[in-house]
Amino acid sequence: MYTYKIAHDPGINTLNKNQNTIGPISLNMMEQELQLIDLDIPELGYLKFISSWLYRGSEGTFLMDPGPTCTIPILLKALDRYQVKDLDWILLTHIHQDHAGGLGDLIGKYSNAKIVCHEKGVKHLAEPSKLREGSKTILGDVSKVYGNILPVPGKKIHVLDEVPFGDGIKVITTPGHASHHQCYVFKNWFFAGELFGAHIPMKSGLYLRPATPHRFILEDYLASMAKIEKYLDPKTTVCFAHYGTANNSKHVLICARDQLKLWVKIIREHKDKKNTQELIEILLEVDPIFRRYKELDLQMQKREWHFSVNSIMGIIKYIEEKKMLCKTTNK
Fold this sequence. Notes:
By secondary structure, the protein is α/β, with parallel strands linked by helices. The chain has ten helices and 14 strands. The strands form three sheets. A six-stranded mixed beta sheet has the order 1-2-3-4-5-6, covered by helices on one side. Helix 1 links the parallel strand 3 and strand 4 (89-91).
């Protein structure tokens, strides 16, 4: 038995107050101003996983992370359902294909929209050839399903500390999941992207799984978590890219941070185990939050297992690179 202290999880309910099932957060269940739009990809078994956030208020409209090209038709139908004739802003947490791959297609339909992304993402949106190739290398056939990545006019892309929308949307650079990752704060919502990893709404309590693809850097991730803490209070709702919402935002931060440290510690201690199945089984034993994996349906388990392997491989590469750096420094 492996033991490790992780933040006490009192079984907070991460379902929206209007939800009564573990399943979908449907378009009409969220608060009137903010809507979660499901971008399901049945071909990959990705249900209740990829999503976009739509805000419609007296200030105007914004969309958070439009998703991959293959789900743009779904997104457009949802925007039509909500009678969205114009988008003022399209905000990106990062430029990975499942978050921003369809942006070039979407901007053709909403040509007045202005785009916000991290400064490191600007050139890749305007000229996406490296982004395409990188996606193909890392994702393989999944990248093909996501679809082509079209270029975005550079003049539409903005790098901002605050979006001039309403009383302002705070933009916080948060490298960790990606070097070009950023989070947003608007009203009582914290749009986390993948800073806290992946989340699945469950009745039994909080489910999180670290999202640490290569090139994961622990120190950057922890620094980003520390940076955003001052923006979280008891009234703040965390809006995840993957997936849904959670209240008690500071508790979510503590759990995500402790979980990340735990995974790095366990994987470092068992780095000799090349079989990722063994590592996942150990993590399921010692991580009470990840252990809720066992309550998921088989399709979600299959998806989460796949991404858990990706996260483990990212952490292994980080540990190996750290070790090599220490050897070089000591020479």
